[in-house]
Design goal:
Shape: globular
CATH architecture: Roll
Strand order of the largest sheet: 3-6-5-4
Largest sheet: 4 strands, mixed
Structural class: alpha+beta
Number of helices: 3
Radius of gyration: 16 Å
Strand content: 15-25%
Helix content: 10-25%
CATH topology: 2,3-Dihydroxybiphenyl 1,2-Dioxygenase, domain 1
Length: 137
Amino acid sequence: MSIALSHIAIACPQIHLVAEKLKALALKVEHEHLVPTEKVKVAMLPIAVSPKVCIELLEPSASDSPISKFLEKKPQGGIHHLSFEVKNLESWKNQLEKAGVTVLPPGIRRAARGKALFIHPNSMGGVLVELEEIEDS
């Protein structure tokens, strides 16, 4: 048996506002439709999938960890962030800042599989987004 990621759903009060922000990540709405049975409007934004895609489980290793703070608000846990693999992270950082997207301090940092930066949730419709440049090992 195998399992494959189908989609990541983000609830938002107005699709067009979030879709506009996601353009800074080169993500564009492919199509929109209504799902009457669920009483929702849906916009689909296709993404390429990295061959290194995985599910990352996060457990705090110190009380001042960002994950500790997250778990204070959501003791049962939950989706913390979306991560997208990119090449040339520095170029992405410059592009995002030019688009008015807030990159969280300290900007580019060491990460689990290489380097990463995080985008403030206010810039991405309430979702914390990570851009990750994976180093080959």
